[in-house]
Write a structure and sequence with these properties.
Elements lengths: L1 E4 L2 E4 L42 E4 L2 E4 L1 H10 L3 H4 L17 E3 L4 E6 L2 H6 L4 E7 L4 H6 L5 E7 L5 E8 L2 H13 L4 H6 L9 H10 L7
Antiparallel strand pairs: 1-2, 3-4, 5-6, 6-9, 7-8, 8-9
């Protein structure tokens, strides 16, 4: 396989190659536009910040709850979903979306990096803890990796986190939930984590971010 960069063209040899070419919308020719659903230039259904489709009504684009309810009725098990048709949705903060890479060891992160936080003027405080002393990691024989929590030193606000290690993609939700609910590392550290579990690394990193680390 030939690849090109600023250093020029290079030939790479390998036994296997994974090619990810992406995908494209297939919304044309389904009658969506005739029904009033707005499509993008690529043929994707246009949505608003709450993930609702944009529909045309009385000359204006709007989010149509009737269309949503109709779609639910047409789907399997619609009788079980009727009570959820008016469930309130939220606007997603894409900067705080969890990011997961399923390699070995796994990589997970969300939010700001330490550098980005400093560039935005935050007084940054960081909590770190490795997997090496973690009892569960030792039992699994997978001690490579660490957890890093980036916080605002003034208020303790969680700005982001970066994890490398065994099953860290499974550990990420505790941190993203804490960030969404405006919890601080102090509260994560005081929460009882079962022993031995990989999640104890989060507790230890939170202790470090609070300036109370005792195992490192």
């Amino acid at each position: 396989m030939k690849v090109a960069s600023e250093q020029g063209e290079k030939t790479l040899e390998a036994e296997q190659a994974l090619v990810a070419i992406g995908f494209k919308p297939n919304g044309r020719g389904l009658g969506l536009e005739e029904a009033g659903v707005k499509l993008s230039e690529r043929g994707a259904v246009e949505i608003d910040e709450r993930m609702s489709p944009m529909c045309r009504a009385s000359g204006r684009w709007r989010c149509d709850r009737q269309a949503d309810a109709g779609a639910r009725r047409l789907s399997p098990g619609h009788h079980l979903r009727r009570k959820y048709c008016r469930v309130e949705t939220i606007t997603l903060n894409y900067e705080m979306m969890p990011r997961a890479t399923y390699c070995q060891p796994q990589v997970a992160s969300f939010g700001l990096t330490e550098t980005q936080a400093r560039e935005r003027g935050y007084d940054v405080k960081v909590g770190r803890f490795p997997f090496q002393p973690n009892g569960k990691a030792l039992g699994l024989g997978e001690t490579t990796g660490w957890v890093k929590i980036v916080t605002d030193a003034k208020y303790g606000e969680i700005l982001g986190a970066h994890l490398v290690g065994p099953e860290v993609t499974e550990l990420l939700p505790e941190l993203t939930l804490a960030q969404m609910m405006e919890l601080t590392p102090h509260e994560i550290a005081r929460n009882v984590h079962a022993h031995p579990t990989l999640s104890e690394v989060l507790m230890e990193a939170a202790h470090a971010a609070s300036g109370q680390a005792i195992h490192i």
